[in-house]
Amino acid sequence: MQLLCLTDRDPADSLPGLDLLPHELRTSPLSLRVPETMASRFDAILVDGTLDARRARTACLSLADAVQTPRVVVLPELALTALTAEWGTSELLLPTASPAEIELRLRLLERSASSSPPPAVQSAGVVIDESNFTARLFGRPLDLTYKEFELLHFLAGHPGRVFTREQLLSEVWGTDYFGGTRTVDVHVRRLRAKLGEHEGLISTVRGVGYGFARARAEDDAPQ
């Protein structure tokens, strides 16, 4: 693959595993505004946020409107809370990612880019565009973190169904996540706050878990 890395350091320092793969890599400063004509020559753009997540965010936002090339942001674990849907990234990599993981994510990204964009998820006034990482509620944009977006995307994609906290943890955070199910409760509470008067779209079923756009039932906990 032809890769462009926006970075202010040697890519081998920010993503060592990439140095062991046979991809062709060019680098440019994070501050460089990449025109579409230049970006179109690459299969993916890597944005290095290992030194400064704020500058990486600025670089991602400058790419979001004009550049269609898939973007991959590289962030240390401590900076993951800063990542939101507005960054417009297609993939995330940790600096510690192994060559095998990097290769897999790049190949999946390449396959996704060559296929038609996924249809928007629409349910109960919520519209989620996965290709642009945007979510709207009755036309109003929702300012969501990455995990809030993923959680809402999953729930809205399965309206009427109820999922246990363990199922949501596995589907949204992944089977390799070692945190407890309380993180699901925390993210649901934050999502409800951002849904405002429509917080009841996410219902709590006592002794089971959470559901989206369910008809109110006796076993639903009060909102």
Automatic annotation (TrEMBL):
InterPro entries for the chain: GlnR_N, OmpR/PhoB-type_DNA-bd, Sig_transdc_resp-reg_C-effctor, WalR-like, WH-like_DNA-bd_sf
SUPFAM superfamilies hit by this protein: C-terminal effector domain of the bipartite response regulators
Domain OmpR/PhoB-type: 118-214
Keywords for the protein's UniProt record, in alphabetical order: DNA-binding
Pfam family, one: Trans_reg_C
PROSITE patterns xrefs: OMPR_PHOB (PS51755)
DNA bind region: 118-214
Gene3D superfamilies with a match to the protein in the record: 3.40.50.2300, Winged helix-like DNA-binding domain superfamily/Winged helix DNA-binding domain
Superkingdom to which the source organism belongs: Bacteria
UniProt protein name: Winged-helix domain-containing protein
Organism annotation: Leucobacter allii
